[in-house]
Amino acid sequence: MTDVNNEYFHQLIKSIDLNQTISTLENDKQHFILIGFCCDEGVKRNQGVIGAKEGSEYFRRAFFNLAAHLESNTRLYDAGNVYCDSEDLESAQQLLAEYVAKIIQLNATPIVIGGGHETAWGHLQGLYKKKLNPTIVNFDAHFDLRETLTGNLGSSGTPFYQASRYLQDQQLDFNYYCLGVQPFANTNRLFDYAHATNTQYLLAEHINNNSQDLSFIDKITAQNKQIYITLCLDVFQAALAPGVSAAQALGIDSPFVINALRKLKQSKQVIALDIVELNPKKDIDNRTAKLAAALLANFLQA
Questions:
Q1: What is the pLDDT of residue 110?
Q2: Is 285 known to sit in a ligand binding site?
Q3: Is 144 annotated as a binding residue?
Q4: Is 10 exposed, middle or buried (0-12, 13-18, 19+ CB in 10 A)?
């Protein structure tokens, strides 16, 4: 590990304007581009507690103040935010998708900070635009496989249902892994759809009873396929992450997720990452924002 002048993230990160023509980034470097998705509409449609629209702002405050311990060939950029200021979630998701596609075109890794979990469908559409179909690794108390609403409208509960239907229409495989599932937060109908789509999952109780066991992650990386990580902060115990729409009294602890993120990063298969459902209005002493920041820092330095 190379000491980058003992700098903090706010000293290392550079601004980047994805609306400008960018010819290329250095080929011999690892590039990560941060972009916020400021949106409450998906959570609102899912009848949750709004507030995640401010999540990326509070995340940045916590993240930028952390000391950076990165390899010397790592480059980090901030591309600003995509805003959903109306009920038109779909247009905001399309704009996010365009930016994600641009980031991929630059041979960089998108890091999207939500926003509710509707962020994931915008993120995935950007990957699909570039003809990528990565394995989805979701750390989440919920499957988020709810059917779309009337008019085929999505919500924070539908992103992976939308992905499964899109891939089915394209005659492509839907490879979905969900870690931290809470039985009491998912109906039998959702479990049935998970089984019908061959979704692989770990219950939160199993993780809590086997917190050192990363064999499920080994199973994913053994396939040697590209990976998209999506991390919903409601997967954690409410004491660790109170600042979410649906806090979990029996959620999982952070060491399992940190070790899983490190192992996934070290596989060199991760092409995209997002962290979602940070709701500052429900947070206590910025506890959840600080957790989210620490998770990304651990991922980047792995």
A1: 99
A2: no
A3: yes
A4: middle
**Res. 160: pLDDT tops 90:** yes
Q: What is the spatial distance between Cα 223 and Cα 77, in angstroms, rounded to a whole number?
A: 30
d(CA 31, CA 108): 5
- Measured N-to-C along each axis, helices 55-64 and 287-301 cross at an angle, to the nearest 10 degrees, of 60
CA of residue 93 relative to chain centroid, distance: 14
pLDDT of residue 85 exceeding 90: yes
pLDDT band for 6, please (50, 70, 90 cuts).
Answer: low
**CA distance readout (Å), 182 to 3, 71, 232:** 40, 36, 13
Q: Is 117 annotated as a binding residue?
A: yes
Annotated ligand binding at 140? The verdict is: yes
Mean of the per-residue pLDDT values of the chain: 97
- Render pLDDT for 41-81 as a digit per residue (tens, 0 to 9): 999 999 999 999 999 999 999 999 999 999 999 999 999 99
Span 254-272, mean pLDDT? 99
Residue 272 clears pLDDT 80, i.e. is over it: yes
* Residues 144/124, Cβ–Cβ less than 8 Å: no
173 known ligand binder = no
Q: Is 206 annotated as a binding residue?
A: no
Given a cut of 50, whether residue 3 has pLDDT beyond it is: no
